[in-house]
Amino acid sequence: MPMTRRRFAIRMAGGLVVTAWTSAPSRLAAVPGMTTLQIKALAFDAFPIFDPRPVFALADAMFPGAGLSDEWRTRQFEYTWLRVAAQHYADFWRVTEDALVFAANKLKLELSPDKRAALMNAYLGLRAWPDVVPALDSLKKFGVRLALLSNFTRRMLDANIRSAGLDGVFEQVLSTDQGATYKPDPRAYQLGPDALKLTREEILFVAFAGWDAAGAKLFGYPTYWVNRQHLPAEEIGVRPDGSGVTLTDLVAFLAERETG
Predict the structure, then answer these.
(1) What are the residue numbers of the active site?
(2) What CATH class does 3-49+127-256 carry?
């Protein structure tokens, strides 16, 4: 629903009070029952903001039909979880490069230094999804605090903020590298309350991946899943408080459930 049709009131002292209803419109799935959320800040994963598709399109263009992009993505996140479980941390840039090398070796591809560098550097020039700037503008105008909370290194986050033209939009730019861990480790999610000086219940976490939405919910964040890939929810006993396919849906979710 367009913002002009409903008042989206943010109380600077009390936060945004929203309610998740079972009667949500079909594009805005909500959890069963009714949950009142008092939101003072939104913490975004990187990928609801930055479009990663050009990275993987480049991988597939370099090695047509080889399946490099899928193998790279899978190993990338497996390595983050393996390193957390093994207590053998390396930052996300290193993990991403290691995953790329593994994927190329597994698929028996000749990954020259130039191709390797080009694929890695593609992670430093991401653009925003088309719906991002208007949605963030709406949220900023209403006074809600905005933060990033991502597995990306700070260098990767800063580079992509510049590339997407989002300088100055986020009050906090948080990399899980600060905690030498990765989501869904609770220590990673705790960076949000620590930096924003809020309780976890006052921060709506905005996830791109279903596993991240589930991890954030288990941590205790109210959670919204920007399900751009139209995937089913994870089956681990929790659901996000809301879900949609764009940040426009997120704005509508909050506006529809504004009370008081």
Answers:
(1) 45
(2) alpha beta
